[in-house]
Amino acid sequence: MAGGPSTPALAAAVCEAGGFGFLAAGYRSAEEVREEIADLGARTSRPFGVNVFMPPAAAADPETVEAYARRLAPLAGQAGVELGEPRFDDDEFEAKCSLLAEVTPAVVSFTFGCPEEALVEELRGAGAEVWVTVTNVEEAAVAARAGADALVVQGAEAGGHRGSFVDRPERVEYGLLALLQLVRAEVELPLIATGGIATGAGIAAVLAAGAAAAQLGTAFMLCPEAATSPAHRQALASTRPTGLTRAFSGRLARGIVNRLQSEHSAVAPLAYPEVNHLTAPLRAHGRRTGDEDVINLWAGEAHALAEARPAAEVVAGLDAEARRAATRQR
After folding, report:
1. In angstroms, rounded to a whole number, what is the distance separating the alpha carbons of residues 71 and 274?
2. Is the terminal CB of the chain with fewer CB neighbours within 10 Å at N or C?
3. What gap in Å lies between CA 142 and CA 162, rounded to an integer?
4. Which domains does the chain have, with CATH numbers?
5. DSSP assignments along 5-28, one per residue
6. Is 29 helix (H, G, I), strand (E, B) or coil?
7. Nearest alpha-carbon partner for 55 in 101, 119, 128
8. Beta strands in 195-271 (DSSP E)
9. pTM listed for this prediction
């Protein structure tokens, strides 16, 4: 939900409806995150969470990134925009963590890796729970040893970036139900299931499989409170297939297949965040003009089930359906 759809209004609406709303801190400056947390706090007195991207381990090979830039140049030329300057940065990780230790949301969750034990202890000491996104059993064990309060177990069906600690071509990507069972067998922490869940029946299914809660993203991207672009909304409402790609950001992510994704996924390098900065102007152009062929159309596999309704109605409908599914007679 980072980079656009996540808003204080959406998180607050989910909280007010009885859910647990999250604010995405990714691609925001620390000061912007402070302002959005204040906005969210003014809209609801209920607890909420903030998600933070762990910084990448090392910069990518510049020649590899430059080669990819040359490949994208004709597409950028057709759109009449200049590609961005590829650069390595940590998305103001330390500043955001210091802020969250100060303002202390109910939960701070981490994606793309596991924080050091000292940071976990600092945030917990300030009053926040720490959740870590995991995509295999090994990552779950690392997060448990670091002192995480809960694990967000992300199946391969999930939209947007894979939450893997390390992005590499030879990784095995697990479906959510298989991964829940594998992680449950190894750790005793509460598990929050995410990936391809779009209905109350899906929520009931992951609860039956051992999850303590379900986390949904794509299901809320058509809500009026979300800042999803019009072109992205149109794609979400379709039945078009999704696929995994590094073409937009240099890191593996799931999106609805479009021209840029289909033509460049096979050669896109592992180069995050350099490629993300490289393609940023092209993606911004697509959102402004409605050219969906150059937008990262992040979406889970069940995106066609998302509904264009207020977030409170989506939460109420999911809750009612989950309760019916949980008590359904065979």
Report:
1. 15
2. C
3. 17
4. 8-326 (3.20.20.70)
5. T--HHHHHHHHHTTS--EEE-TTS
6. coil
7. 119
8. 213-215, 242-245, 253-256
9. 0.95
